[in-house]
Design goal:
- The chain is mainly β.
- It has strands at 13-17, 28-36, 45-53, 59-66, 72-74, 78-83, 88-96, 107-114, 117-125.
- A hairpin with an 8-residue loop joins strand 2 (28-36) and strand 3.
């Protein structure tokens, strides 16, 4: 367990975020769960991406997670996934904001591909989770 990556304080709360409008979410419905506010530079926030398969077919493919520009993600950006029909999986990863974050927007993007077909695409606005907003 990566306890050295966790950061907790009394003012934090679990937050579930829906994707912004305009994505491709009819087959796979994504939600993002994290503790708000996100920790400052040098610390990693534990993040959970919840993926619900809304089809009657098993989905086997790749999940790609693209953090906002300059942010770090661990253990990596690409994961192999399998979701049973009408099932749900959770992908756990860690995010760290840069020392000098660029001005917003701060979008975390996710894509699910099966073979070469894009079946889901969504973006989450992380700006509300930042303790200190950065204006440009």
């Amino acid at each position: 367990m990566m306890t050295n990556r966790r950061h907790r304080s009394a003012g934090e709360e679990k937050h579930v975020l829906s994707p912004i409008e305009g994505g491709l979410v009819d087959k796979i419905q994504p939600l993002l769960q994290y503790t708000k506010p996100l920790p400052g530079p040098g610390s990693f926030a534990e993040v959970f991406l919840i993926l619900k398969n809304k089809t009657d077919q098993r989905v086997e493919g790749w999940l790609t997670i693209i953090p906002p520009r300059g942010w770090m993600i661990e253990p990596g950006q690409r994961l192999m996934i399998a979701i049973r029909p009408q099932g749900t999986i959770v992908a756990e990863f860690y995010l760290s904001i840069p020392t000098l974050p660029a001005p917003g927007p701060h979008f975390l993007q996710v894509k699910v591909t099966v073979e070469n077909d894009l079946i889901a695409k969504a973006a989450f606005d992380l700006r509300p989770g930042l303790l200190h907003l950065v204006e440009g």
